[in-house]
C-alpha cells in the first residue's frame, strides 16, 4: 500500500478518480462508451498527446515551456509524407528516425536560443510556433504537395500505426515505454533530479555547479525528438497528412501537463501525472458528444481544464496556508 | 539605460526609413496614397492589441488571450446581427463582452493570484472555444453599409483611414498615461519591483485589474473593426494575432520581464512591421513566409538586447555590490510565473 | 601576516590579493590566512571588501593580482563548483536552496550516493543525511520538503552540505543576521564543533559581540585594504571599532531628550491569527518607541498591518484621532504614516529605477499637478531631500542600484520624509549599512523626534533600541510581553521579555 502511495501521489490519485467518475458517468449514459473499440480509440488518441506531454514535462519542470510543439509535430508528420513521396518503399524505421531527428533539430534550435542565448522560452517558442509552421506550409506550397494520402504511403508504415499487440495499440505501447523511461530517469538519475533543481531555483542550481544550460538544452532536444516521434505516429495512424497537422496542439499539451500536476513555474511534477492528465482530457473530450454536449464545446475543454486545474491547486494551497496559520495560533494560545 | 533604449528606438526608426525607402524604390505602387492607406489599415487590429499589451507587459505580466477575445467578440457580433439586433445595440454589448472577458483574466490573475502566462494560455483556448460555441464554424456577413466606412474608409480626402485615426488617438492616450501620469510611473515600478510598489501605496491590484479590462475593451473595438473591415464575423477571426502583437511590443524594445519600454518604440515597431508586410505582400511573398518572418522578428527582438548585454558584460564585468544581490536571473522564466509562486508557508502573511 | 605563534600551516591563504571592477578597487593587497581548527573573523564596514573576499575564496571572482594558496599551493578557482570540489564551502546569510526538493536531496545535490546503473541510492542518501544532522545535533527530517524551513534550519542544511562534501574551509557570510539568540547559539556550537574537527572557518558578522564569543583571530579590512590581523583576545572592543571605522565614533547614539506630546499613533487589539494577537500600544508626538523582539516574533508583521500592506483579523489603528482602515497603505500615507520597510532592496526601493523616480514613488500625485507627472518636480523633490540627507550620488537620474547601502537607505528615508508624515515607522533602518551612515541615521531619527515626529523603531540590534528609544516594547511569539521605560530597559530586561518570560516593568 505504501508502495502504491509512493507511485501514485495525491495528485495522480485524484486524476485517476476523476477519470473513473468521467468514465462511469459517460458509460451510464451510453454503455457503448466503454466497449473494446471505444477504449481502444481513447488510448490511441491519448497516446499522441501523452508523448507530447512527456516531452513538455521535461521542459516545464525546468521552468521552461515549449509552445512550438504543434508546429514541430506538423513538420515531422509532413516530412514522413514527403519521404514516402520520394520513395514509397522507405522502411518504417527510417521514417521514424528521420522524424525524431527533425524534431530533435527543432528542439535544438529552441534549446540553443533558450540555453545559450538566454532568450525566454515563452518568446522563443511563440516565435518558432510560427516559424516552423511557416516552413511546413512553405514546403507544401514549394513542392505543390498539399495533401498526402494513405495510398501514397507504404503499407507497413500504415499497419505499424494502426496495429496492436495483445489488443494494446502500438502507439499506446510506445507512449508507455517513453513514460517508463522518462519517469525512471527523472526519479533515479542525477541528471533527472538536476532538472527539478534547475526549475526549483535556477540560482541555487548554478551555485551547486549544475550545468543548467546543458541540461535545459538536452531537455529541449529530447522533448523535440518525442514530438517528432508523435508527428510520425500521427501520420502512420491517420494516413492523411497536410501542412496543418498538430495546429493548436500546444494548448492541449500544456493543459494536460498542468492538469497532471506539473507546476508551471518548475521544480515539481511527474511525467506520470502529465500522461494521466492527457488521458483525462482526451477522455473528457471523447465523452462530451456522448453526454449530448454540442461538438463545439470540445474546443473549449482544454482551456477550461487548464484554468480549473490551476485554480484548484491555488485554492488547495490557500486552504493549507490558512490551516497552518490557525494551527499555529492555537498552539500559541 | 535611457541611452540604450534611445539607441534601440533610433535603430527602429532607421529600419522604418530603410523599409519605406526600399519599398518606394523597388516596388511600384508602394508609395501611392491608396497603398499607404491599405498598409495602415491592415495593421489596425494589431496596433490596438499591441497598445493593450504594452502596459500589461510593462508590469511584468502577459495577456495571450487577446486574439481569442477578438474571435469571441466577432462571433458574438455575428450571432446578434443574425438575430436581427440593430448594430447600434450590438456595439455596446460587444464592448461589455470584451470587458467581461478581460475581467475574467484579471480575476484569475489578480484576485486569485494565478500566473498570467498559464491563465491566458488557458483563456486563449477557452475564449476561442466559446467563439465556436456561440457561432459555430460558419460566417456572418452583410453588415450595414453605413458602418463599414468607419472601418474601411479614409478621413475625407486624405490617405488616413478613420481606423488609423482611432489607433492614433488610442496611442496618444496610452503614451500620455504611460509616460506622464502617476499610473504610468506605477506601471514601471510594478514591473521592476512589485513589492516596493505595494509598500509605496501604489494600488497594484487595482491597476493590474484595470489593465486587463482595458485590454478586453480594446480587443472588442479591434474585433468590431475587423468584422466590419472584412464584412465577416467568424469564430476564427484574428487567429494567431497575439503573436504579431507580442512581436510588435517586444520588437519595440519593451522588456518581457517588465519595467522597460516606450510607446514610441512600440509605434515604430508597428510601422516597421506594417511596412515590411506590405512590401513583401506587393512582391508576392506568401502569408506563410510572412509568418516565418514575424516569428523570427519576435525572436530577434529579444535576442538582440540579450546578446548585446552578454557582449557588454563580457567586456567589463559588473562590480560587486555589497552585500551582493543575487545575480540577475538569466535563466528563462515564463512570464508571470512569479505571480503564483507562493507556497503555503510563504503565504502566511 | 598571520599570528606567528600559531603552529599549524594555513589551509587557505590569500596573499596580497587585489581585485577591481571597472574603476572601483574592491580589494587592494589583502592578505588573510585561515588555519585548521580556527574560527577567523573578518571585520569591516560595509564596502570594506568583505563580500569580495568571500567571492574570491568561493570561486565566484578571480583576483587581478596576488595569490590564493590552498595547502601552500597556488590555486585559481575558475568557478564556485571548482572551489567546492577543492573543499571550500560558503554559507550565505540567506541560504539559496531548492524549495521543491527534499532536505536530503538539497544536501546531496550533485553528489548523491549511487547504486549500480548510476541509480541514486535514496535510502543511503536519507540515512547519511540523518547521520549528519544527528552529528550536528539538529533534528531535521531528511525526507521533508525544504520549503517552509526556518532560515536557521536552512543554514544547518548548508553546513550539512559542507560536511557531506568534506569541506575543510567553511566561510559563513553574516549567518546570524536573521537568527534568534537561541538559533545563533546553536550555530556557534556547530561552528566550534567544525573547528575542533580540523576545519578552518571564516566568520563574518556585523555584531562584534559574536566575534568575541566565537572567533580566535580577526582580520580587519577598510576601504578594500588590509588593516590588521589580531588575536581576538588581544584587541578590545573600542580598538576594533576604531580599526574598522578608521576614526573614533564620538557618539553612535546621539539621542536628544524630548518632551513627549499627545498620542499620535494608537494601536488597539491588533490580531492576526497565527502571527500576532492583541497588540495594543501608542506612540506620542516627539517620542521614539523601540519595538524589540527576536526575528520572527511578529514585529515586522505588526507594523506592516498598521501601514496596511498586510491584512489583519481584528483590532483598530488610529492616527491623530482618525481611524486607519485595514489593507489600505495609500490611506495610511495620506493620514500621515510612513513605513521604512525591513527589506530595502525588495520593499523600500525599485533598484533599477533612478533616484528621482524612487524618491517620488510614495507621493506621485504631489509631483503630478493636474494628473500630469512633471519631471522637473520629481528632480526638485529628490534634489531637496538628497541635499537635506547629505546623499552622495552622481546624478539624480542614476539608478539607485549604483549607490552604497547607506545612501540607498537615505533615498528610502527621503522618499518617506517627503510624504511629511506625523508617524515614522522604521524597520531595521541600519541593517547592512556602514557605521558612518548608521550614525547619520540615528542623528536624523533623533532630530525628527525632537521636531515632534512620532517614531516607532524596530531593530534586531539591542544597543540601537536601548540607545535610541524613549520607551521599549518587547514582543515574543506574537504577543507584547513588556513595555519598558528608558530607565528600565536594559539588555537583560529586554532579552528576558523577548524570550517569553512574562510581563515586567511598566512604562509611563
From TrEMBL, chain A:
Q: Which InterPro entries does the record match to this protein? A: ABC_transp_permease
Spell out the molecular function terms from Gene Ontology.
transmembrane transporter activity
List the source organism: Prauserella muralis
Source domain of life is Bacteria
Record's bilayer topology term: Multi-pass membrane protein
Q: Which UniProt keywords apply?
A: Cell inner membrane, Cell membrane, Membrane, Transmembrane, Transmembrane helix, Transport
- Per its database record, what is this protein's job? Part of the ABC transporter complex LsrABCD involved in autoinducer 2 (AI-2) import. Probably responsible for the translocation of the substrate across the membrane.
Q: PANTHER family recorded for this chain?
A: ABC TRANSPORTER PERMEASE PROTEIN YPHD-RELATED-RELATED, AUTOINDUCER 2 IMPORT SYSTEM PERMEASE PROTEIN LSRC
Q: Is Mitochondrion among the key words of this record?
A: no
Listed GO CC annotations? plasma membrane
Chief location: membrane
| Subunit-structure text | The complex is composed of two ATP-binding proteins (LsrA), two transmembrane proteins (LsrC and LsrD) and a solute-binding protein (LsrB).
Q: What are the leading ranks of the lineage?
A: Bacteria, Bacillati, Actinomycetota, Actinomycetes, Pseudonocardiales
What name is this protein filed under? Autoinducer 2 import system permease protein LsrC
TrEMBL record, chain B:
* Residue ranges, annotated region (Disordered): 316-349
Recall the taxonomic lineage recorded for the source organism. Answer: Bacteria, Bacillati, Actinomycetota, Actinomycetes, Pseudonocardiales
Listed GO cellular component terms? plasma membrane
Q: Does the keyword Transmembrane helix apply?
A: yes
Q: Which organism is it from?
A: Prauserella muralis
| Intracellular or extracellular location(s) | Cell membrane
List the GO molecular function terms: transmembrane transporter activity
Kindly give the membrane topology term recorded for this protein.
Multi-pass membrane protein
Membrane spanning residue stretches: 43-59, 66-84, 90-110, 117-135, 155-178, 209-226, 238-256, 263-280, 292-311
Query: What is this protein's record name?
Result: Autoinducer 2 import system permease protein LsrD
UniProtKB/TrEMBL annotation, chain C:
Q: Name one GO cellular component term.
A: plasma membrane
Entry's Gene Ontology molecular function annotations = ATP binding; ATP hydrolysis activity
Note the InterPro entries from the entry.
Answer: AAA+_ATPase, ABC_carbohydrate_import_ATPase, ABC_transporter-like_ATP-bd, ABC_transporter-like_CS, P-loop_NTPase
Q: Say yes or no: keyword Secreted present.
A: no
Hydrolase found in the keyword field: no
The places in or outside the cell where this protein is found are: Cell membrane
The membrane topology noted for this protein in its Swiss-Prot or TrEMBL record is: Peripheral membrane protein
Entry superkingdom: Bacteria
Kindly state which keywords UniProt assigns to this record, in alphabetical order. ATP-binding, Cell membrane, Membrane, Nucleotide-binding, Repeat, Sugar transport, Translocase, Transport
Quote the PANTHER family the UniProt record gives.
CARBOHYDRATE TRANSPORT ATP-BINDING PROTEIN MG119-RELATED (PTHR43790), D-ALLOSE IMPORT ATP-BINDING PROTEIN ALSA-RELATED (PTHR43790:SF3)
Q: What is this protein called?
A: D-xylose ABC transporter ATP-binding protein
